[in-house]
Amino acid sequence: MIAFRLTGSTTETKDGRHVRLARTDLGITASGCQVFELPPNVAAHRHSESASGQQEMYVNLAGRGRIEVDGEDVEFGPRTLIHVAPEAIRQPRAGTDGLTYVCVGASPEPTFRPNNKFD
């Protein structure tokens, strides 16, 4: 087991956003996994994953914000998980206290077998 403590590899943008490369630091090879830290009232990059085919799941770690998904504005508070389809255009943005979240992305493959215990 490898623990990730939000101190791993990081990239900072001009507007103060941080991206922590959890996938790389943890050695994950089956999915993408990054931690994003947004300062107050700052938005992440608006994008879709239609080219990669990746579904994404957003998990709030701290703070509050919103995620716009195909024009629908969704509250993104504590204890919230949001699934976004590959073709949907999404843009997370922080509220007044900032926002820290994990984004896990993966492409569905025929070899993926969910654990029946959780279905």
- Beta strands, count: 7
Q: Give the CATH topology.
A: Jelly Rolls
> Radius of gyration from the CA trace?
15 Å
Domains (count) = 1
Helix content range: under 10%
What's a quick, concise take on this entry?
The chain is mainly beta.
Architecture blueprint of SSEs:
Elements: E1 10-12, E2 18-20, H1 22-26, E3 32-38, E4 55-69, E5 72-76, E6 81-84, E7 90-106
Antiparallel strand pairs: 1-2, 2-3, 3-7, 4-5, 4-6, 4-7
Describe, in plain words, how this protein is organized in 3D:
The chain has 119 residues and is mainly beta. 4% of the residues lie in helices and 45% in strands. It is built from 1 helix and 7 strands, in the order ββαβββββ. Strands 1, 2, 3, 4, 5, 6 and 7 form a 7-stranded antiparallel sheet that branches.
